[in-house]
């Protein structure tokens, strides 16, 4: 965020690389070792490709197999779309901004990029909140679940989440309410090629608590309740176990096992989300009270640690969800390797 130091000598100024060399008020480019820069570019590009194609595989898989067309997987489908869009529309530009310390696309696109970044982050946590509610109803209130939770009701909830997140994020960024009271700081750090998303104390508090800490606490509480109920159900089932079981009992047991497996898998997804984004929101909340003293490289690294959540979600499905695992194998074999596996089922 800092412009050129007034105490720099002429020789120092000549050696400084600028984002826009022909503009005297240009921001300076970051000085990084070439080998380090290339290595980080390769690492981040690999992360972006894994994020895009991994989540694209989830989208194709759920769309292709009717067996996966359930309310829960509809939420997972929308979440995968969020992560895929993040990989396509946000992460590449964030990569260049971090490593070059320059924004080459102008102020308007800077605001659009920041708004999209904020939108997709909010959509992600609200989707995971919806997942936790869905799993809570499925495990703790199974008799009424099928009547109350349908694809239609879930689609309405997803549409509301997207509309709310878009309206909130673009409203905050375009109205510049997030930087009210920070005008003097922005004037001091103003230069051509700068694109940094910062929040004043009020908006940092709202963003962190209302959109992360409070939903995160609610989700954690719901999953603790779910695992408590699952443990009780497993204990009851083991006590009622007999040598001979009817077909109906076996089907109920199999259904209960699938629900518990889904709850465990989605609980892992939620845990990864909280772990990836918690450091970022702690810094976002505390930074305005410390006069924005967090180094930009540290802040960007925390942002990318949060982005990593979008990369890991498809891996969680593949490792912990057998139906997705089998579906992934069929999709890859049939459409990527062109093998005749159309008779396989999941």
Automatic annotation (TrEMBL):
GO cellular component: plasma membrane
GO molecular function: trace-amine receptor activity
Domain G-protein coupled receptors family 1 profile: 54-317
Membrane topology reported for the UniProt record: Multi-pass membrane protein
SUPFAM superfamilies associated with the record: Family A G protein-coupled receptor-like
Alphabetically ordered keywords of this record: Cell membrane, Disulfide bond, G-protein coupled receptor, Glycoprotein, Membrane, Receptor, Transducer, Transmembrane, Transmembrane helix
Primary localisation category: membrane
Cellular compartment(s): Cell membrane
Annotated transmembrane regions: 38-62, 74-94, 153-174, 205-227, 265-282, 302-320
InterPro entries in UniProt: GPCR_Rhodpsn, GPCR_Rhodpsn_7TM, TAAR, TAAR_fam
PANTHER family in UniProt: HISTAMINE RECEPTOR-RELATED G-PROTEIN COUPLED RECEPTOR, TRACE AMINE-ASSOCIATED RECEPTOR 4
The name this protein goes by in its record: G-protein coupled receptors family 1 profile domain-containing protein
Gene field: TAAR1
């Amino acid at each position: 965020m800092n412009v050129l130091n007034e105490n720099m000598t002429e020789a120092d100024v000549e050696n400084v690389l600028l984002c826009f060399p022909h503009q005297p008020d240009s921001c300076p480019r970051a000085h990084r070792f070439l080998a380090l820069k290339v290595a980080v570019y390769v690492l981040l590009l690999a992360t972006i490709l894994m994020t895009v194609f991994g989540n694209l595989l989830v989208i194709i898989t759920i769309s292709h197999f009717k067996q996966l067309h359930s309310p829960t997987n509809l939420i997972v489908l929308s979440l995968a779309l969020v992560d895929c869009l993040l990989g396509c529309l946000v992460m590449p530009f964030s990569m260049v901004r971090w490593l070059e310390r320059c924004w080459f696309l102008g102020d308007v696109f800077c605001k659009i990029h920041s708004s999209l970044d904020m939108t997709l982050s909010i959509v992600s946590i609200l989707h995971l909140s919806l997942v936790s509610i869905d799993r809570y109803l499925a495990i703790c209130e199974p008799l009424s679940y099928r009547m109350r939770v349908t694809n239609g009701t879930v689609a309405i909830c997803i549409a509301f989440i997207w509309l709310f997140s878009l309206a909130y994020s673009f409203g905050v960024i375009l109205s510049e309410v997030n930087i009210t009271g920070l005008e003097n700081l922005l004037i001091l750090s103003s230069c051509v090629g700068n694109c940094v998303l910062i929040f004043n104390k009020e908006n940092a508090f709202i963003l962190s608590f209302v959109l992360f800490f409070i939903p995160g606490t609610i989700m954690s509480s719901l999953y603790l309740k779910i695992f408590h109920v699952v443990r009780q159900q497993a204990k009851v089932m083991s006590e009622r176990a007999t040598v001979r079981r009817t077909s109906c009992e076996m089907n109920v047991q199999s259904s209960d096992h699938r629900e518990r497996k889904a709850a465990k898998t989605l609980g892992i997804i939620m845990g990864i989300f909280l772990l990836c984004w918690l450091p970022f929101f702690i810094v976002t909340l505390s930074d305005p009270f410390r006069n924005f003293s967090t180094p930009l490289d540290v802040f960007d690294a925390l942002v990318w640690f949060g982005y990593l959540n979008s990369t890991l979600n498809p891996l969680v499905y593949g490792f912990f969800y057998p139906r997705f695992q089998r579906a992934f194998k069929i999709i890859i074999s049939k459409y990527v390797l062109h093998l005749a596996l159309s008779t396989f089922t999941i």
